[in-house]
Amino acid sequence: MPIHSVSALFTREKLDMLFPKDRADSFFEAIFGDASEGSYDISLEFKTQTRDRLEFEFHLKQRPGKCLACNLTYGLPTVFSRHPVINVKGLVQEILCLLDGASGSKWQLGSTREISRNLHIIPLTVFCG
């Protein structure tokens, strides 16, 4: 699939379908027993495509009145990779289903990066075969 077609495929609407806004609340409900205990919202963003990979990012945006501290987000790639609510494996399968003819299921979460006090990101690379 040509690069311009892929970037057009991952619109805000499609990304919100793949990773709904309420998934952060479900994640915090599972961890803390109360969604209001969560300090950030999570969204999926499409960044770019190369010949054999798609680059996405999980954006962790501080909630009003909460603190997005590094100690809360630096261990998240490991947590996200295994947590059934985040379901990275299922997310990758859904992404690949949108790409006609794409195969593979290899993916990798990068280290948390602090962009600002209000925004941290976790890179997600999907390898296409």
Describe the structure.
With 129 residues, the chain is an alpha+beta fold. The chain has one domain. It contains 6 helices and 5 strands. The protein has helices at 3-9, 12-18, 23-32, 70-73, 76-82, 88-98, and strands at 40-50, 53-62, 107-109, 113-116, 119-127. Strands 1, 2, 3, 4 and 5 form a 5-stranded antiparallel β-sheet that branches. A hairpin with a 2-residue loop joins strand 1 (40-50) and strand 2 (53-62). The longest helix is centred in the C-terminal third of the chain and has 11 residues, at 88-98. 22% of the residues are buried. The model has no long low-confidence stretch (mean pLDDT 89).
Whole-number mean pLDDT: 89
The total count of helices amounts to: 6
Gyration radius over CA: 15 Å
Number of E strands: 5
The percentage helix is: 25-40%
**Low-confidence spans:** none
Q: Could you say which structural class the secondary elements and strand pairing correspond to?
A: alpha+beta
Give the termini separation: 12 Å
Order of helices and strands: HHHEEHHHEEE
Number of domains: 1
Which helices and strands appear, and what pairs or packs with what?
Blueprint: H1 3-9, H2 12-18, H3 23-32, E1 40-50, E2 53-62, H4 70-73, H5 76-82, H6 88-98, E3 107-109, E4 113-116, E5 119-127
Antiparallel strand pairs: 1-2, 2-5, 3-5, 4-5
List keywords for this structure.
single chain, 129 residues, alpha+beta, 36% helix, globular
Structure summary:
The protein has 129 residues and is an alpha+beta fold. The chain has helices at 3-9, 12-18, 23-32, 70-73, 76-82, 88-98, and strands spanning 40-50, 53-62, 107-109, 113-116, 119-127. The two termini are 12 Å apart.
